[in-house]
């Protein structure tokens, strides 16, 4: 399934008002969740997202059995960064730090977060997906500028879990 087919499917789901559509193929799984109020919605990370990423000659889509992690341990870095957790984008889209232009940001550097707290929004194909914390801790760094495009698995925040 290519990017255009996925966009057409999302458009059809929105037009028909369908609550949820699941598509499973041999090498990927796609879950589209529609809502009555499309301003803010929660969408689970989709293994098909690498298909829409910028093309790479030897790129292969992630297997359906391996869900995309939203928070993983920080790989590399100096000794001070070894205990930091990197929260990554579960999808391609546009990163927003605020729920709307006239509201305050969800989190700032130094804020303490808990599991389930909304950290940001990633807009993908006119769906606004709240990205929630999967770890508790303190925001050490925001790695993306507001209203910037993000790629699948791109680091968004550094969190100190201690």
Explain what this protein looks like in three dimensions.
- The relative contact order is 0.18.
- This protein has a domain at 71-160: Beta Barrel (OB fold (Dihydrolipoamide Acetyltransferase, E2P)).
- The strands form 3 sheets. The chain has a 5-stranded antiparallel β-sheet, with no helix packed on it. A 4-stranded antiparallel β-sheet has the order 8-7-5-10, with no helix packed on it.
- By secondary structure, the chain is mostly beta strands.
- The chain starts with a helix and ends with a strand.
- Strand 7 (118-124) and strand 8 form a beta hairpin.
- The protein has 2 helices and 11 strands, in the order H-E-E-H-E-E-E-E-E-E-E-E-E.
- The longest helix is centred in the first third of the chain and has 14 residues, at 3-16.
- It has helices spanning 3-16, 49-52, and strands at 20-24, 29-33, 71-73, 85-88, 93-96, 112-113, 118-124, 127-132, 137-142, 148-150, 155-160.
- It is globular.
Give a short account of the largest sheet: 5 strands, antiparallel
Total strands: the figure is: 11
Overall average residue pLDDT: 76
Order of helices and strands: HEEHEEEEEEEEE
CATH class of the domain at 71-160: Mainly Beta
Fraction in beta strands = 25-35%
Secondary-structure class: mainly beta
Shape: globular
Q: What is the CATH homologous superfamily assignment of the domain at 71-160?
A: RNA polymerase II/Efflux pump adaptor protein, barrel-sandwich hybrid domain
What's the tally of helices?
2
- The rounded Rg comes to 16 Å
* CATH third-tier fold name of the domain at 71-160: OB fold (Dihydrolipoamide Acetyltransferase, E2P)
């Amino acid at each position: 399934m290519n990017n255009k087919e996925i966009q057409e499917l999302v458009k059809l789901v929105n037009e028909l008002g369908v609550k949820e559509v699941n598509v499973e193929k041999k090498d990927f799984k796609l879950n589209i969740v529609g809502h009555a109020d499309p301003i803010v919605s929660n969408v689970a990370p989709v293994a098909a997202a690498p298909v829409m990423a910028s093309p790479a000659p030897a790129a292969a889509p992630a297997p359906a059995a391996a869900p995309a992690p939203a928070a993983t341990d920080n790989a590399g870095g100096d000794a001070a960064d070894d205990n930091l957790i990197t929260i990554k984008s579960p999808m391609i889209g546009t990163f927003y730090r605020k729920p709307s232009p006239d509201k305050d940001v969800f989190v700032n550097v130094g804020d303490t977060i808990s599991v389930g707290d909304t950290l940001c929004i990633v807009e993908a194909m006119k769906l606004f997906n709240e990205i929630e914390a999967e770890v508790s801790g303190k925001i050490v760094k925001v790695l993306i500028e507001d209203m910037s495009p993000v790629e699948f698995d791109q680091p968004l925040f550094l969190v100190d879990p201690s």
